[in-house]
Amino acid sequence: MTGKNFGTRRRLLMGIGGTVGLATIGGGAAICLASDRLIRTFTGHSDFVFSVAFSRDGRAALSGSMDKTLMLWDLATGGVIRTFTEHTDKVSSVAFLLAWRLERLERIPPHALSASYDNTLKLWDWETGEALRTFTGHSGPVYSVAFAPEGRSALSSSEDRTLKLWELATGKELRTFTPAPGAPGLALAHTALSVAFLPDGRTALSGGAEGELKLWEVATGKELQSITVGDSLYAVALSPDGLMALSAIGDGMITSEISTGRELRTFPGHAGQVFAVAFSSDGRTALSGSDDMTVKVWEVATGKELHTFTGHSDRVTSVAFSFDGRTALSGSFDKTLKLWDLAGL
What we know:
By secondary structure, the chain is mainly β.
C-alpha cells in the first residue's frame, strides 16, 4: 500500500475568543474558520506543549511539555491544579488511565502515565501529584505511552527502535518488541512515534517514522503484520472498534483497514505537515492538528471536513476528544492548550 503525497513534506521529529471567517478549499467549498468556538485557552507552560489528554469525566486535562513538566488543568476554570516536575527532560506523551475493564471497581485509580526524553516513563497519582513508579530500560528518548485496556500494563515506544511492555504494579519490564527481520540487505528500523492497544488488549499497533504501521502480539512481542502508508508519518490513532487506523501523512491523513492493510480513504486539506490525529469515542469523527496552526474536524465515513479551528500561533502537536465528544483539546508549540466546542458538528 503506497502512501499519498498530499503536498510538501518537512522531516521534523517532535522535540528536535475570536472571529468567524470563510475560506475556500479545492472545488470552491466554503469552510468556517471557527475561532468563535474557542471555549478557553490554558497558559502556564514555559515551552512547547507536546501532548494533551482528557480525564474520563471530562473535568480535567493533562499536558506534557518541552519544559520538562506535566500540568493538570481544571477545564471549567482554566486553572492549573498541579504541576509534576520529576522528569529531567522534555515530556513527549501523557495518558490517563481510563480503565474500561476495571469498571467493576468502585473507583478507578487516579493514575496517569508520562513518557520523556530522559529515557523513562513515570506512573503518577494525578490527584496527589505523587510519582508512584519510574520505568527504566529504554536507551533513548521515549516517544509514546499507552495503558493496556485492562489497566495493569503499559506499552511504550522509543528512539531506540523498540517497544516495551511494562507491569504497572511492579515497574517490571515484561518484554521488548522488535521488528521481524526484513528482506536481505534491508535495514531493520521502526522508530515508533505512536503506540496503541486494540480493544481486546491482545494486539498492539505502532506507527513508525519510517512510514509503516506494525501490529504486534502482546503476549509474545512478535510482529504480526506491517503496513506501509508512506513517509512523513508522525502520528497514528486507532478506531475504538480496533478495525481502522488513522495516520498523519504529510499534510493529510489516511485511514487503513487493520485486517488487510487496505487504504480506505484520504483526508487532504491542511496546508502543512499533520502532527496529531485522534478518533472520537464513537469512531464517527476525527481530529487533526497541523504545522499550519489549525485543528480540523472530519467525518470519518466520507472524509468530509466538518470544521477548521483557528487560534493557535504555532504548530499544533496534539489533539484529543473528550469522552462524550462534546469538546476537543489541542496543544501547540505556542506553549498553550485550547479547548474547543464541538456541539452541533
